[in-house]
Amino acid sequence: MEFNIKEEELISLSRKAGEAILEVYNNVDLASEVDYKGDDSPLTHADKASHEVIMKGLKELYPNVPIISEEGAHIKYEDRKDYEYYWLVDPLDGTKEFINRNGQFTVNIALMHKNTPVAGFIYTPAHDSLYVGIKGKGAYKVEKGEKNELQVNNSTGNRIAVRSKSHASPEEDGVLKQYGVVNDISVGSSLKFCMVAEGKADIYYRHGPTMEWDTAAGQAVLESAGGKVLKGTGPEVFSYNKENLLNSSFLCLGF
C-alpha cells in the first residue's frame, strides 16, 4: 500500500491544533485549570481542545487510518497490534511547560508504518515554529516564514547535550560522559529531538519514563535529518506499538 502524505494539509492541521492551544494559553483563568489523570500526569483544557481538532482533521483527511492519541480512548493491543499504518499523536506535549508558561510545548503528529515513525510534524504554538521530517525526503524547519533544511552536526568531539527541562536524571551524566559532552542545554517537550535534528545539540539521552506518543514525531524528524534513536544506549533501534505503550530509556545521536 502506497501512502499519500498530504504534507501541506497536515502542516495546516498542526497549526490549527496550536491555535486551539493558544486560545487556552492566552486565557489565564482557563489555562490555570488543571486536572490529573490516573497516573498523576496533568491534563488541561488545551490538551482536550488540541485533541479534538486533530482527531477531526485526521479523520477527514484519512478516514480509514487508525489514530492512537494520548487523550484518546484506550485501544486494546489485540486490536492495534497488526496496524500497517496509523497515526500516533500527542495533542500537547510538554503539559508541564504549558502550566509553567515557558512556551516550550508542542503539537506532535506522527505517521507510523509497521511500528516505525515515517513522518513527523512538530509545531510550537508559542513561537510559531514548525518541524517536519518525512522518511526519504528529509527534514526542515519553518520559522518566521523561512524554510530551512535540517541536518545533524555529525560532530566528532566537544559535543553538546540537550536535557529535559522537567525530567533530568543523574543517570544521564554517566551516559553523556562517554560521548565527549562538554556542555548542555535544557529544553522541554519534543523540542529536544528537534535541537539535535537542527544541529544545536549532538546528543539526547532520556532515562526516565515516556510514552510512545511523546517520541514518535521527534524520532521521525531526527532520523529524517540524519540522526538516529536507539533503545537504551543501543545498538537496538527504538520500536513502537508495544503491548505496553510505555517507552524504555533511549538515546538520540546526531553523529
From TrEMBL:
Subcellular location: Cell membrane
Membrane topology, as annotated: Peripheral membrane protein
E.C. numbers: 3.1.3.7
The entry's keywords: Cell inner membrane, Cell membrane, Hydrolase, Magnesium, Membrane, Metal-binding
GO cellular component, one term: plasma membrane
Binding site for Mg(2+) 2: 90, 93, 214
Reaction catalysed by this enzyme: adenosine 3',5'-bisphosphate + H2O = AMP + phosphate
Domain of life: Bacteria
Keyword Metal-binding: yes
Cofactor requirements of the protein: Mg(2+)
InterPro entries named in the record: CysQ, CysQ/Inositol_MonoPase, Inositol_monoP_metal-BS, Inositol_monophosphatase-like, Inositol_monophosphatase_CS
Protein function: Converts adenosine-3',5'-bisphosphate (PAP) to AMP.
Family: Belongs to the inositol monophosphatase superfamily. CysQ family.
Name of the protein described by the UniProt record: 3'(2'),5'-bisphosphate nucleotidase CysQ
Gene that encodes it: cysQ
